[in-house]
Design goal:
Blueprint lengths: L13 E7 L5 H11 L2 E7 L2 H9 L7 E2 L3 H9 L19 H6 L11 E13 L22 E3 L3 H11 L9 H17 L2 E2 L4 H6 L5 E5 H5 L4 H5 L1 E4 L6 E9 L6 H11 L2 H11 L27 E2 L7 H13 L2
Parallel strand pairs: 1-2, 1-3, 5-6, 5-7, 9-10
Antiparallel strand pairs: 3-9, 4-7, 4-8, 4-9
Amino acid sequence: MGVVSFGSSRTSNVLYIYNWAEYIPTEVYKEFEEEYGVRIVEDIYSTNEELFTKLKAGGDGYDIVIPSADYYEIMIKENMLEKIDKSEISTFSNIDTSILEKLQDFDPNNEYGVPYVIGPTIIAVNTKYVTDFPEDFSIYEREDLRGKMTLLDDMREVMTSALAIEGHLQTTANEEHIAAAAERIKIWKRNIAKFDSESFGKGFANGDFWVVHGYIDNILRELDEEGLENTKFILPKVGGTAYIDSMVILKTAPNKDLAHKFIEFIHRPEIYGVIADYLDAPSLNVEARKHMETTPTFSIEDLESAQILRDINESLNLQNEYWQEILLSN
């Protein structure tokens, strides 16, 4: 396909994306640039909070961002998102309807976002050093593993899991429920080396930590063949969480037409197959499953019972208070 013109403004041939690190393969960016005769500029964030804070502080100029479901929900409520023109995305029909349904609690007609990836938040165990272990969060109660474990430095992830173990929903505003979850996390904290959302993959791969809580693609990226053979990935049946990150177009986006073209491109089956292989993710693009060269560690069916994080506006401040108490506890 030849070069496509998207207007006459000076940035009409540049797509600005604010994204997680190493989330879209470089080859996919290059192929899009070559096909459409444009350039992609990508900035990186490490947390949804960082993304949201920058945008609310006036970080305009981005076309596409890829928030997780809870911040996708918040951004809808904050009137930050442009409606997706599905007539401009011929590949939208490739997306598994079961994934679209998971987002319809807050976006009933899937008008504001297009799912990019679904994946689990897992516990990884180095079976070279840990040979007998429970396949759930009770592993963090093991005093014999003290100093060799990490939990995500993410209040929402950790608190949601602890609340579920206590028998409560992530959206509860009942202080007794939240206090009970916090007490459980304090027990876990005594046995971990640290809360870590940045380097858990590297720390696990080099043997500094034997049990880590995190995202599977961050860990796989660091493991060699021997390390992979000695790794058990656990998605706890109780307290397990999963994420759906979606591509959304900002209301202030300078290049909405080009943004739609990019989203359409991502969900071409042959392109999305490359992405799913790269991320070791179950393909939420049905047609792309035929193009994948690997079998993901977890299937979409495996993630059925895992909670997708939601906006917890009513209890966010209360949960944050208890989280700060956890961080300061011995």
